[in-house]
Amino acid sequence: MWFCVSQFKEEARRGFAGLEEPLAGLLAMLEGSGDWKGKGHSLGYCIVTELQLWMKEHPAAQQSGITLKKLQARVLSILAQCPANLLDPLISIYQLHTADRNYLLGHVSHLYHRGDYKEAAVLSIKLKLQPDQDVEKMCTPLLLQDKTNLVEDYVGDYPELQSKLLQILDTWCEPGFNIRDITSQYQGLSGYKPEKFNRKMLSKLVFRLLDRFNADPALCPNVVNQRHLRTLNYLFYKRFVEKTMTQENWTDHVQSTVGENRWLQGHLMQLLMRYCDLKTAARWAQRCNLPKEMLPYRVAEELQKLQERERVEEATKADHHEERKKEDYYQLPIPRANIHFLQTWEETQRCWEKVLRPGQVVGIDMEWKPSFGMVGKPRVSLLQLALHDEVFLLDLPRLLEQAVMEAEKEKLPHFIQRLYSDAAITKLGYGMSGDLSSLAATWSALKDTDKQAQGVVDLLTIDKQVDVVSPEQSDEDRGCRQPEKGLSLLVQHVLGKPLDKTEQLSNWEKRPLREEQILYAASDAYCLLEIYEKLCKDPESFGLSSDLTGSLVGKPSMKPRAKKQLNKQEVLSPSGQQCEGHQKETSCPAAPISPKEFSVVCDNMLQGLGRYLRCLGVDVQMLENEDDHRKAAEIARQEGRVILTSGLPYQTLRSQVAEGRCFSVNSSEKAKEQAVQVLKHFNVQVSLSDIFSRCQVGRGGLELRCSLAGSRTAAWVLRSVCCLAPKISA
Q1: CA atoms of 389 and 337, how far apart (whole Å)
Q2: Rounded distance, CA 168 to CA 155, Å?
Q3: Do residues 525 and 604 both lie within one domain?
Q4: By its UniProt entry, which PANTHER family does this protein fall under (predicted)?
Q5: Can you give the pLDDT at residue 475?
Q6: Residue 727 pLDDT > 70
Q7: Which tens digit of pLDDT belongs to each residue from 528-545?
Q8: Which residues contact 383 (CB under 8 A, 6 or more apart)?
């Protein structure tokens, strides 16, 4: 083989040397043969690339002047037909970058008007013609053909074109704009996909481009307003349908979302009239200072009558709520005076002195403003450090601002790094890897803190081992509360009462913090101390090793996986996109199990995965296409199955089952890769005897009745299963 390749090269070079005009000879060959039009390394491709190398070694063979121009005109007609791997060699050989720019633009325009939109765009990119072209004209047919990647490449190196494209896309998302005015011009377009050309798709594309190009969101007011409107609808859903957000938090977020935007304020009034009473609508009208002409008559009439009555009602409700909280939820065992909110470096000195004492045990937690699907990582707003007799709440934004002003940027990171790296100090956390990731995003100097951590105990890891059955509660006992989960559930198991998580979705960047926020933040950190103390005193009663302290203290915290993990306060965007990745995982893998011991229920968008797992011997139940996603939770609870789902339903379903009993699959991957992901996560070990073990055997041999789509699918499973085992064990 090597002899053939070397012989070919030698013959090709002899041929080039023997031609009076090798460039013209190459064109004659390409024009007279169709071999080079196919994909891959055709004979034509090998000759072209070999000539490119030969020309570099023999610059005297290069053409110029009129002769070169004629050759360039001929090669342009070939470029529109040739595969991508021939473009760069031909452009180099015939020096097309030196050709007359107007001539090149004219040729690209000819391709465009002929309907060869992709070819026109690719050639424009290769010849860097974009600054002299109409970005809307070039990109519109590509978007209609669902070639968004090519559109991104087209504007990729030109910030001005990026801005123009974003403004054009935003104009198409303007309320009242008829997208058909655009699509109607391209009805006969090859590969036309009008179903993908809609406001939802355009909105997703705009936000992806804003993120990729780091562009100013102000370029796209319509899309941003639509995103804020979806956030507004989501907030109403959380407050009035799910009832999982307090009035104070809901008010903060609505106010932050709407701001002084009259368009959003108008939609706010419509939502208030739909979900609330006249009093609430009137109160918001007053807060937004809306003109009377924007208000319904009855709302305007209610404005003057409402204020006094609401004050009385709110006072009564607040008293009752506080009493119920004391009965139902975990309460801080230390006085309010022992909770210190620190905003200056001077105030933190006593905190450092106490926290950094050898032998100290410190409960650590962090809070940040929920992202609601907006671009960017969360920045920590509050760092809580709990000791046995007091809690310190560090106002990180204020402390960071002071450090920058005083040119002492390293003070705070130095303290935090000392705390985490000191093996003599026991640090307690819950989901510590996610907290450290957010801390690194807040201050780059802390990016390696997780690698240096010593003496840490992540109670999330212990939580997976705690063997306690949750006490049954009637609906009357729980009121309208959602089932407990995460740290709140662990607190309930160990200390008897759950945490009150109603302040979790607070706006933690707003100052001053409300009293409820301060007490919540202190409780979140302090409860870690009490849990740890109780587990260490009597680990056996919780199903833990008797040497709990010795086996955990001093080990570094779990490192986050390569895939993104869902931060504790990041929620779904109103459009249903997940803002971050999968749930947190334990540092210790689960004990291996066989497929026969593993039972799942697959959501209706994962039927391919379900059929694949069933062929491997897993006990699979699948929802029908018309089934509601919530049916998966009912089946999981009744039959003890793990839920496999993807996208938006994951957030809803995981709150309805126990921790770790709902898994989010990457919907963009094929069924085989999804199966690898599931089996590896739950440590399911597949053997050859498991394959098709859930299929029936008939007289004529093996009948594949595992919902396979015929013999072709069976063969596919058999082939792919051969490479599945090494992937799972990797």
Answers
A1: 11
A2: 13
A3: no
A4: 3'-5' EXONUCLEASE DOMAIN-CONTAINING PROTEIN, EXONUCLEASE MUT-7 HOMOLOG
A5: 45
A6: no
A7: 999 999 988 888 888 777
A8: 364, 366, 393, 394, 396, 416, 439
Please give the Cα distance from 161 to 163 (Å, whole number). 5
pLDDT of residue 160: 94
Once rounded to an integer, what is the mean pLDDT over residues 631-652? 86
- Per the domain annotation, does 182 fall within a domain? no
- Find how far residue 580's CA is from the centre of its chain: 3
User: Structural domain tally of the chain?
Assistant: 4
Statement to judge: residues 420 and 519 lie in one domain:
yes
Q: What is the largest CA-CA distance in the chain?
A: 102
| Alpha-carbon span 390 to 388, nearest angstrom | 6
What is 413-474 written as a DSSP string? HHHHHHHHH-TTSEEEESSHHHHHHHHHHH-GGGTTHHHH--SEEEHHHHHTT---PPPP--
Among 693, 381, 671, which residue's Cα sits nearest to residue 510? 381
Burial annotation 646-679 (CB, 10 A radius, 16+ → b, else e): bbebbbbbbbbbebbbbbbbeeeeebbbbbbbbb
Query: Of 210, 236, 238, 237, whose CA–CA distance to 223 is shortest?
Result: 210
Task: Show the domain range for 65.
Answer: 5-157+165-174
Same domain, residue pair 518 and 631: no
* The predicted structure's pLDDT at residue 510: 94
User: Can you say how many angstroms the Cα of residue 29 is from the centroid of all Cα atoms in its chain?
Assistant: 51
Residue 427's identity, in one-letter code, is: K
Query: In sequence order, which residues have a C-beta less than 8 Å from that of residue 452 and are 6 or more positions away?
Result: 417, 420, 421
Give the span between the Cα atoms of 391 and 522, in whole angstroms.
6
Question: pLDDT for 614-634, tens place per residue?
Answer: 999 999 999 988 888 888 988
The three-state (H, E, C) secondary structure of 570-607, written as one string? CCCCCCCCCCCCECCCCCCCCCCECHHHCEEEECCCCH
